[in-house]
Design a protein that fits this description.
The protein is mainly β. It is built from no helices and 14 strands. It has a 4-stranded mixed β-sheet, with no helix packed on it. Strands 1-2-3 form a 3-stranded antiparallel β-sheet, with no helix packed on it. A hairpin with an 8-residue loop joins strand 11 and strand 12. It is rod-shaped.
């Protein structure tokens, strides 16, 4: 019979080194000397499955994230660009541009780290309507100050968040 030290009767033992010790055979013709061997159990390799993410528009709701590791261990996420990871896990749209979400799994005592998987997607600009407010005067009155109305702001944005200087003129 043979056994390992430390003892492991599992059909799939944890990663590590185990001494193999054999005993039990007898012979009238042989003086049997048993010598230990080594069972080396290497960490397993794993991979991540992470589907592509479709394009979004600034102002869209956070997007659910789902990825799995072949080891069954949990997968973590990180984001780069005008986006961020929030509870869920979800990717939150923080602005227009290109967002890359990285899925990773660092491994453990039995599994090597999985190669990270990147998924990039485009975040389109949100449409914003700026409409000149109607004004009316009677000649020879001075021209009034022109004002505008906005339609389409999201995420708490307002006119003060826009760049540049708005100007209005008559044609």
């Amino acid at each position: 019979s043979c056994a390992t030290t430390p003892s492991s009767t599992a059909t799939s033992p944890d990663a590590g080194d185990y001494q193999i010790n054999c005993s039990g055979q007898t012979s009238g013709n042989y003086d049997i000397n048993y010598h230990p061997g080594t069972l080396k159990v290497n960490k397993g390799s794993q991979s991540i499955t992470f589907a592509a993410l479709g394009g979004k528009t600034y102002g869209d709701a956070p997007v659910d994230l789902s990825a799995s590791a072949s080891s069954g261990l949990s997968v973590g996420f990180a984001a780069a660009g005008p986006c961020s990871i929030v509870a869920g896990p979800k990717v939150k749209i923080d602005g227009a541009g290109s967002c890359t979400v990285t899925a990773s799994q660092p491994g453990n005592s039995n599994w090597n780290p999985a190669p990270s998987v990147d998924r990039s997607f485009t975040i389109a600009k949100k449409g914003l309507s700026v409409t000149a407010d109607d004004k009316e005067i009677t000649y020879p009155a001075d021209r009034p100050a022109f004002t505008v109305s906005y339609d389409g702001f999201v995420n708490g944005d307002a006119a003060g968040d826009l760049g540049g200087t708005r100007s209005c003129a008559t044609t």
